[in-house]
Amino acid sequence: MARVAFIGAGNIARSLIGGLTANGLAAADLRVSDPDAAQLAQLAERHRGLAAFASNAAAAEDCDFAVLCVKPGIVRAVCEEIAGALAQCGGVLMSVAAGVPLARLDEWSGARLAVIRCMPNTPVAVGRGVIALCAGARVSQAQRDAAGRLLGGVGVTVWLDDESGMDLVTALSGSGPAYFFRIVEAFEQAAAELGLPADAARRLARGTFCGAAALADNDNGDGGGDVARLRREVTSPGGTTESGLAALEEGGINRLARAVLAAAAKRSAELAAATAQ
Question: What domains lie within the chain, and their CATH numbers?
């Protein structure tokens, strides 16, 4: 099994640790570092056997992957801190920091490490994540395969040959769960305002959206994954669904989707530009 160090114990690190251990990776093969002692203690309590460190460099020693789960503004300092330990054991540097390109990661780690940039999302915690990856020039096929096996246990992995797509990936799958939660929240609230009991509105909205998502994801060879076809199947001419969809179209759903992705991708690009300075 791979030995994995998580540098930073924030939301995405906790989600990955939860998903990996649920998928069978032993907590003893994982380690985490963070300056927040209370956060480390909570993780160690939840995942017995997980090693917790105050020192990033100590966590990175003798590991196969060091996963940077820190804010973009401190990635440089952390890379410089752990590069020596990681180079000594031949480990792969894997960064989930939004907007930090491979060139900067390579430069800040002393141009001596295999570097992978990836963008997971929080559903990795329940094994239903989406993880986009882009490999640097020093990543071997064996290391790429190992990264795919590791993260494939917590979701769908998508490798990109062109790093320029990572800003849009960040906007779509990285930030996407928040868009989904906000939509469900809006429909829960609307149903309650229109007369349903709040608990019924909550259960119906969440069950409907999550069930529809599962159906869309159930590509069983008969076109089950074709969302346009699924939409048409539940839309009877002149019926209630058609009326509801008409309101969505009138509200400019396609335009809004493009605006959402463009805004988030623009912010990702801005973060990348800031790290280059």
Answer: 4-163 (3.40.50.720), 176-266 (1.10.3730.10)
